[in-house]
Amino acid sequence: MRMKVPIAIALFLVAATFVLAAPSRSAAQQPKMDVKLFVGVSGTTFVSMLETGRERDTFAGWQIGFGPRIRRRAWFAEVQFSFNRWAFAFDDPDIGGFTGRTNSFELPLIGGYVPYKNAFFKLYLYGGLVNHFNTKIIVKAQGQTLKLRPKEIDFAIYQALARFGANFDVAMFNFDFNYSISMNSATTTSYRTGYHQIQVNIAYLF
User: Fold this and answer.
1) Is residue 176 a contact partner of residue 165, using CB atoms and an 8 Å limit?
2) Helix or strand or coil: residue 14?
3) For 147-161, b where at least 16 C-beta lie within 10 A, e where not — what string?
4) Residue 3 CB contacts under 8 Å (≥ 6 apart), including other chains
5) What is the pLDDT of residues 108-137, one digit of tens each?
6) Phi, psi of 29 (to 5 degrees)
C-alpha cells in the first residue's frame, strides 16, 4: 500500500494534466477552471472485524474545504483540500462511557465525466483517490479531557480511500453527494477496521 499510493497519485496528476491542459484548436474547447468553497455534513461508519463477529459504529461529522476544478469538454478533474471532524461515543467496561472527536484533513484527487450540461445546470459523475490524514483525537472521560495523537490509541495516521460520487452545478452553486471506502485499516491493531463515509456538501463557485 505504501508503494502503490504515491504511484497512483503520480499517474492521476500526469493523466489529468495531459487530458485537460493539452493545446486545443478551438477557444470553446479550452480548459475552464472554477474554485469551490464548500461545507457539508457526513456520516462515518467503522466496521471492526473481531473474532466475535463484526461490530459497526456510526458517527456524525462535518467538513469544510476548498480547491480548484478544471473542466475540458466532457471531462473534469479536481483537487479539494478539506478539514474534517467527527464525534464519537463509546462504553468501556474498565473506564465506563467516554466521548470525543477526531480531527483530520483530506486531499482527494478526483476525475470524472460531465454527461449533461447547459447554461445553468451541469451534472458531474466522478471517482478517485482520497488521501485521509488523522491528526488529533480529543477524548473526554471521567471529567478529564485528553488530547492524543492517533498512534497513542492505535489509530491509523494515513488512510487511502476510494471515493465515488455525483454533483451538480446550479448557477454559481454546487451540490455534492459522495461515498468513500477505506483501502487500508483505520487502526493499527491486529484486527482490520473498515472505514465508510457518506458526505453531503454545498459549495460556492468562484
Assistant:
1) yes
2) helix
3) eeebeeeebbeebbb
4) none
5) 999 999 999 999 999 999 999 999 999 999
6) -100, 5
Q: How far apart are CA 111 and CA 12, in angstroms?
A: 8
- Residue-level pLDDT at 8: 55
Extended beta strands in 73-189, E state: 75-79, 81-92, 96-117, 121-141, 144-148, 158-170, 173-182
Grid coordinates belonging to 156: 491509523
Which residue(s) pair with 84 in the sheet? 63, 104
CA 85: distance to chain centroid? 12
Render pLDDT for 11-28 as a digit per residue (tens, 0 to 9): 555 555 455 545 555 545
In which band, very low, low, confident or very high, does the pLDDT at 95 lie, cut at 50, 70 and 90?
low
Q: How far apart are CA 200 and CA 160, in angstroms?
A: 20
Residue type, 17: T
Compute the distance between CA of residue 29 and CA of residue 72 in angstroms, rounded to an integer: 6
**Identity of the amino acid at 54:** R
Which pLDDT score is estimated for 99? 82
